[in-house]
Design a protein that fits this description.
By secondary structure, the protein is mainly alpha-helical. The chain is built from five helices and two strands; from the N terminus they run ααααββα. The longest helix is centred in the N-terminal third of the chain and has 17 residues.
Length: 102
């Protein structure tokens, strides 16, 4: 086993420990980061695992099929990428959108 295989296996084990709801939220957040150009190192491996679980064809979902994006689109100028505790008056943390949507 090479060094690159060990972290992938650890990631897969970590993903299995998460609830299905947490894995779904992680998928949405990683897709959002990817679309905004802020990809994380190793996110492609995580996305591949999550696509296998949540997408029938194993591929990413086109953002046009995501009703959340349309719903929150008017709020885009007010959204920030930092934690909700760090938001100033009139700003909304992107991380809170999933909770609002549910």
């Amino acid at each position: 086993m090479t060094q690159t295989e060990v972290p992938i296996e650890r990631l897969q084990n970590f993903l299995k420990q998460l609830t299905q709801q947490a894995r779904g939220r992680l998928l949405i957040e990683l897709e959002r980061l990817k679309h905004s150009g802020d990809e994380l190192l190793g996110s492609d491996v995580i996305l591949a695992n999550l696509y296998t679980e949540f997408r029938k064809d194993g591929k990413s979902q086109d953002s046009t099929d995501n009703p959340e994006r349309y719903f929150f689109q008017p709020l885009e100028p007010l959204l920030i990428d930092s934690a909700a505790e760090r938001a100033n008056s009139g700003q909304i943390s992107r991380g809170s959108l999933a909770v609002i949507w549910e």
